[in-house]
Amino acid sequence: MSQVITQGNVPHGPASGPPSSALPAGTAGAGAPATPPGVLPGARAALRRFAAGAAVVSAAALATMSAAPPAAASAQEGDRLTVTVRDAGEGLDGTYEVTCRPGRGSHPDPEGACAAVERNTRWGQDTFAPPQRDAICTMQYGGPATAHVTGTWAGRPVDAVYDRRNGCAIDRWDALVPLLPAVGSATPS
Questions:
Q1: How far apart are CA 161 and CA 53, in angstroms?
Q2: Cβ 177 vs Cβ 107: under 8 Å
Q3: CA dist., res. 143 & res. 182, Å (int)
Q4: How far apart are CA 110 and CA 47, in angstroms?
Q5: Whether the Cβ atoms of residue 125 and residue 134 lie closer than 8 Å to each other
């Protein structure tokens, strides 16, 4: 396929006929319709095809970029989490259900629990991911509390385990208060 690049009135690149500057202005070869000076025959149609293709690609890209993140889409599917807490202390242990948008369930603070997960949700990242294996964590112990969170969030299955065995684990737990109970160093939201 030959390509013609026009800069001003001077064509650059291979062409199937003489350059337009070789013909008198407003004329074309035998039987061809007249074209404006500086435009090769067929260039106008090629430009139209290019513009139409670019419009389709642009519309598709815009639709993709403006698509809502999975968290918004999951509102239709329902964000449902089950939280089982052990060894957190009296009145904090138990199994709680929470459904978001609107927040409801057996959790003591369903709206707050949903807000905690929502504020920790980042596009393209697992909200419930454990700390990285190579993370440098303080040698701090936050107590024996553990939690197991299961269900669905942002259209993805959740099966996450939490504890407070070091600084990274404590920070991870505290980021989800009040979904997980405020224990030790946690500050309720």
A1: 49
A2: no
A3: 12
A4: 57
A5: no
Other beta carbons within 10 angstroms of residue 30's beta carbon come to 4
Residue 10, beta-bridge partner list = 7
Helices (H) and strands (E) in the chain, counts: 4, 6
**Does residue 63 register a pLDDT over 50?**
no
What is the band of 123 on the pLDDT scale with cuts at 50, 70, 90? confident
Over the stretch 7-30, which tens digit does the pLDDT of each residue have?
Answer: 555 444 444 445 444 445 555 455
Q: Does the bond joining 102 to the residue before it have cis omega, within 30 degrees of 0? A: yes
Q: Specify the DSSP element, H or E, that contains 100.
A: strand 94-100
User: Do you find a cis peptide bond into 14, omega within 30 degrees of 0?
Assistant: no
Q: 129: which 2 tokens?
A: 């991911």
* Residue 181: predicted pLDDT: 97
Residues 6+ apart with CB under 8 A from 103: 110, 111, 112, 113, 114, 115
Strands 10-12 and 156-162: unpaired
Name residue 81's beta-bridge partners.
Answer: 98, 151
